[in-house]
Amino acid sequence: MRGDRLKKLRESRRMTHAELAELLGLGVRQISRYESGVNDPTGDVLIKIAEVFNVSTDYLLGIVDDPTPHLRVDNLTEQERAVVAAMRRGDTTAAIKTIVADV
Questions:
Q1: Does 79 lie in the same domain as 37?
Q2: Which of 29, 33, 47, 76 could bridge across to 80 with cysteines, CB 3.0–4.6 Å?
Q3: CATH code of the domain containing 48
Q4: pTM given for the model
């Protein structure tokens, strides 16, 4: 894992090592080890970190530079699914109508 990214995310939320450790169920020293690159988190901890900061695991691993998690269809509302489906079809008008219909 890219420790510098974890540190940047933690600091951007004004979160202490202790606060993050508590959220993850870890010791304070372990957070410091992750940030300094001494240790890497297990897969389960990596997923928890991604969920806490709402970033993708690929971002934490340094595979991609965009921290935004990939779109997951299972957590979208019906309206959001309809907008995404319309955009994928290239039907911007239908997407806009779907958005505006709920306002």
A1: no
A2: 76
A3: 1.10.260.40
A4: 0.69
48 and 78, same structural domain?
A: no
Report in angstroms the alpha-carbon separations of 72 from 19, 36, 37, 56, 75.
28, 31, 29, 11, 6
- The separation between CA 41 and the C-alpha centre of its own chain, rounded to angstroms, equals 16
DSSP-assigned letters across all residues of the chain = --HHHHHHHHHHTT--HHHHHHHHT--HHHHHHHHHTS----HHHHHHHHHHHT--HHHHHTS-S--SPPP-GGG--HHHHHHHHHHHHT-HHHHHHHHHHT-
Q: Are 82 and 57 in contact (CB under 8 A)?
A: no
In single-letter form, the type of residue at position 19 comes to E
* Structural domain boundaries, residue 85: 71-103
Q: Tens of pLDDT along 14-48?
A: 999 999 999 999 999 999 999 999 999 999 999 99
